[in-house]
Amino acid sequence: MTFAGTPKAIDLSHHLNKLSLSRVASPLKDIIKYMHEPGMISLAGGLPNPSLFPFGELRARVYAPETDLRSSEEHCSPIEFSIPKNASPSHKNTLSAALQYGSSYGSARLSSFIREFTSHVMTPGYSDFEILLHSGNTDAWNKVVNILCEFGDYILVEEHTYPSSQALWAPMGCKGVPIPIDKDGLIPEALELVLKNWDQTFPRIKKPHLLYLVPVGHNPTGATLTLERKKAIYKICVEYDIIICEDDPYYFLQFPPYVLQSQRTQEESGTAPSDIPVEHPNSSSELDGQAYVNSLIPTFLSLDVQGRVIRLDTFSKTLGPGNRLGYFVCNPLFAERILRATEVTTQAPSGLSQALIEELLISWGQEGYLRWLPGLRDSYTSRRDWMCDLIAKYFDLVPSPANIVDDVVAVQKGHGSTKDAVPYFSFSFPKGGMFAWIKLYLPSTSTYQNMKATSPSNENATAKWAEAFWMDLIKEKVLLTPGSYYTPIIGSGINERMPLEPDVIFFRLAFSFETREEMEVGIERMANVFERWWS
């Protein structure tokens, strides 16, 4: 399908690796295309007989799309649907088809829904984009690497990068090229500087041609790229011929700005219980579907007029990760090469997952799905607010000085107004996703100074202190994710990583799962540990 007035993707075949260029279509395709001809009796395919599948019918009760997910009240009337074993005039979606070998493209009906949704919400900048289902974004990133990267390639990554994305290419001898980020995501000027100086910095080494990033609600930092930065990054990637892998699982969880409780109006903070959600501007109660779409920062895909963006979308954060279902949006060439790889690896996402998600989305319709998403966003916004409120409750938060790029600095409770307040950590209020990212300042702790005096290097002292501090948090029964997990691999071995910033460490806090009460206990325990180590 193409759209009048928009360009088609350009030829980017020179980015394909040798493995991808060597793949041929599965010969079974020649059989499949004849199996559905009228009157054909097939003795060719090795398809199990669906009458022997032990499932007779699948019934589901699901939330209505307008359900208020933040309310403890009874949810509004649910929607019920069923998926029968065999087709009927009223049921196109069947278990016989869902449980059978299927096309590597995935369900045509579900793909059609996604294409319409993508055209409306993402507005791709070129006309001949393709939709191809996959088994979640980890599976999708694996396939991107395996069509584009040769052994030993360098890959452009953010300076804090999701560990699984690196563990995938590290055994290939690939190396990360860390690009600095701040609270607004990857810094375009830093990306351009790396590419401009590549031949001087890495003489006789092939220049990277793939940029991997998480642009919204970045994992682990919670940063969200602005539209201005996306435009600048895309322009740089066009100039230096870089493919952008836009891994965007948190795209629909973009939050309004956080406001400290002390700065909210009486109506917002007042005397209401602290777990009552604050109504932000543009909350779902005030938005229709189109207004919600308009509130989202446009994607890289919307800026792409050449087909150099491979977008990874997933239902993991919107409908549940156990579905293991998502989709590529990319140019026809890359889609065809990914399809060839899919035919001989995963073959297709789970048929049951496809059938269930297809029936859910068809039941809701496009408008219903666009009512569900802002409600989901509002629920995670409330959770973001809980965590920030609780950090402000158990620490004093003061504005960051000019040399710290984060929004605020946390100090010991009751010491925020004193001139000699010792900084524990700084952080920025998350603008999307599920995480807060805190940066700890170690020089003011005596334990760290003692470790530095007896360690062979600052980096060794930092690592030892971080391990000891983390274990003390665990003893206090509060678990954070060490920031070192996200340090880019820059050498041929998985342990050869980007040098750590001296005298600081990082932790990731998730606000996505625990109740507010559990979150409060966890933050209070965390504050107790900080007070001990900084005393």
From TrEMBL:
GO BP, one annotated term: alpha-amino acid metabolic process
Pfam families referenced in this protein's UniProt entry, alphabetically: Aminotran_1_2
UniProt-listed InterPro entries: Aminotransferase_I/II_large (IPR004839), Class-I_PLP-dep_aminotransf (IPR050859), PyrdxlP-dep_Trfase (IPR015424), PyrdxlP-dep_Trfase_major (IPR015421)
Aminotransferase class I/classII large domain residues: 98-487
Gene3D superfamilies attached to this UniProt entry: Type I PLP-dependent aspartate aminotransferase-like (Major domain)
Keywords, ordered alphabetically: Aminotransferase, Pyridoxal phosphate, Transferase
Transferase found in the keyword field: yes
GO molecular function, one term: transaminase activity
Entry cofactors: pyridoxal 5'-phosphate
Membrane-spanning parts: none
Protein's recorded name: PLP-dependent transferase
PANTHER family reported for this sequence: AMINOTRANSFERASE, AROMATIC AMINO ACID AMINOTRANSFERASE, HYPOTHETICAL (EUROFUNG)
Region Disordered: start-end pairs: 264-286
Similarity comment: Belongs to the class-I pyridoxal-phosphate-dependent aminotransferase family.
